[in-house]
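Ligand: flavin-adenine dinucleotide. Inputs:
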Amino acid sequence: MAEFDYDVLVIGAGPGGYVAAIRAAQLGLRTACAESRETLGGTCLNVGCIPSKAMLHASEYFDHAANGSFAKLGIKVTPELDLDAMHGQRKDAVKQLTGGIEFLFKKNKVTWLKGRAAFEDAHTVTVGGEKVTAKNIVIATGSSVTPLPGVEIDNAKGIVVDSTGALELAKVPDHLVVIGGGVIGLELGSVWRRLGAKVTCVEFLDQILPGFDGDVRKEANKIFKKQGIEFKLSTKVTGVAVNGDKATLTVEPAAGGAAETIEADAVLVSIGRRPNVDGLALDKAGLTLNARGQIETDHSFRTAVDGVWAIGDVIPGPMLAHKAEDEGIAVAENIAGLTGIVNHDVIPSVVYTWPEIAGVGLTEEAAKAKGEVKVGKFPMMANSRAKTNHEPDGFVKVIADAKSDRVLGVWIIAVPAGTMIAQAAQAMEFGATSEDIAYTCHAHPTHSEAIKEAAMAVTGKPIHI
Ligand code: FAD
Ligand code: NAD
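Predicted complex:
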């Protein structure tokens, strides 16, 4: 009889966990995955990436029809919102994709252990009242919403909600206040603004989108303002009171000062996410957390305890599905004795608004702090495809090392920025110089030509500006 029930037991079936489980099984390891949700796919497929993109995609078409963008193309329409049907297509996307993971588990012979897992020791967990042992345990429990002290979230009531509640609002609020000008606030704020809500975004810092390049943050703020989102920067929310079907927010300057109130029909709390570790009994496995409540690992995703590994939102690094997925593949390969590596310096980041906002590598500020750089910028207004499509907003910025010309970072605001950033990530992964990108033939007319032109601008020689 085998010493353990499984070679690998993964806790959590989000993009980190389900990918790790499938790769481990592909490598011939006996694999199980514990998941407490009714469906597989984690935050990303159930209440994150996928449903938010379903609402962003549908509301974008509605907005084009309502705000005159279609009229510019010679298409006259008067849109009528069927919010139930819009929610229906969102739920359908989630159902199909989560069902797809269940199919992949069966196909690859990954056993789904239904229930919450808690450690008994480093090789044993209890799931659904049963003890299960494994030679290797991968913690992929993800993250959940950071609460705002004194603000109670009630998604069922639909007035003070987190991202899950904001995806499911039963009617378009007259006034939505978004607390936090990060990725979730801007994406979901955009959805409801497009569908007719007045949207106010309250951000603690003096600029939206922390972590993004400074130029991008400024330009994005201008674009969202032009679209009608009102911003209260350097402002903190000190309380939210619900009265009937309205909420009253009390806000004051972040640095202190006179308080004021804002009335809202809905309030979205989107001030970040924190790792899921409650109830895991990590102490029984001998594990401790860092100051940010995360599980630390080495580059192979090994924790301090032999046989216990961790990946995804529960460990340090950007909380992104593709980062979790790549770590899932790498951890399984490391467990199987292969060499699994994730290059954390080249993880693209995308905000799926209109236009999209994307970046990979260092911001100009971070690059300059490390040494001398050359920067090339090209506006989308000068890109023939964007101009033809009536999409003038945004730019591409390429940051290169002044001596070696090696590309250190690429930042894009453009309608398809999320798709365009892939070539920048690949170029950086191959150690490209700005000249390599500038001398790569790009199809015409495409938005991607703006990347080539920005790379040409690094040496001061763009053609179309
Ligand atoms: P998760 O996806 O959080 O999965 C962890 C799973 O573990 C969960 O299903 C949970 O139920 C389960 N679990 C937890 N504890 C236990 C336990 N003790 N026992 C059993 N099961 C357990 N990222 C992007 O890259 N692109 C996007 O467009 C994007 N959009 C987003 C939109 C929203 C609204 C949100 C909230 C997030 C978005 N993200 C996006 C972030 C992305 O969802 C996460 O980075 C990603 O899901 C992390 O994957 P994970 O596998 O680490 O964890
Ligand atoms: P975030 O960290 O992106 O933004 C939170 C914002 O809230 C920050 O700007 C912060 O300064 C602000 N803030 C914090 N406390 C505040 C307070 N008390 N009052 C006002 N503002 C306050 O977090 P998020 O938008 O909640 O997203 C969580 C995570 O989910 C992110 O790490 C993100 O990577 C991930 N996510 C990714 C995508 C995507 O890839 N497109 C989409 C959604 C979410």
